[in-house]
Design goal:
Length: about 180
């Protein structure tokens, strides 16, 4: 007989041995904090030239606050592209997904899929949070099947994720405005 999530025997005593251990680690791995590609000097020169061109255009339009925004965006792109990732630990628990000590409960997550960026495999987890819509974890290619089977018990696996308008726009811009040479 079940009562408030606990199993009871006939005398009414709780059987704690049948309750799952929520701290048990089902699977864990260490990986880079984000996919990383060492950028060439051409990339940084292209960002600087594009930023300078935008600043000149905005200067003649007398939108001086927008110049600060352009410089801020260029600085963020530089920092994100130049700082190598650190090694972090990911864990799959019975209660949810532990990403660097922050446990996302299964109820907070929606679906997952695998992607590949800069010759690195990535597991992407869709969340219900508008400010953090996705979690990304760099994985080894041999872990893909194990993660698919384990995560599939808790979340919906999506073979091909839906692309938002922002995804389509960023793909188009990357194809039309390459920031690095193809070599």
């Amino acid at each position: 007989m079940a009562y408030n999530g606990f199993c009871m025997d006939k005398s009414g005593d709780k059987l704690l041995s049948e309750k799952p251990d929520l701290n048990q680690v089902l699977f864990s791995w260490k990986s880079a904090s984000h996919p990383y590609k060492k950028r060439s000097r051409v990339f940084y020169q292209t960002i600087a030239a594009f930023s300078f061109l935008m600043i000149v255009i905005v200067f003649f339009l007398h939108e001086f606050l927008l110049i600060g925004v352009i410089l801020s965006i260029a600085f963020v792109v530089y920092v994100i592209s130049s700082v190598p990732p650190i090694e972090i630990e990911h864990k799959i628990l019975p209660i949810g997904f532990d990403n660097v000590g922050r446990v996302f409960r299964w109820e907070e997550l929606n679906s997952f899929w695998f992607d590949r960026r800069w010759n690195q495999d990535i597991m992407v987890i869709q969340t219900h949070y508008p400010l953090q819509p996705q979690l990304q974890a760099v994985i080894d290619s041999d872990m893909r099947d194990k993660l698919k089977n384990l995560m599939g018990k808790y979340l919906l696996y999506v073979e091909k994720p839906p692309k938002t308008a922002f995804d389509k726009l960023s793909e188009w811009m990357m194809n039309k405005l390459p920031l690095e040479s193809a070599s």
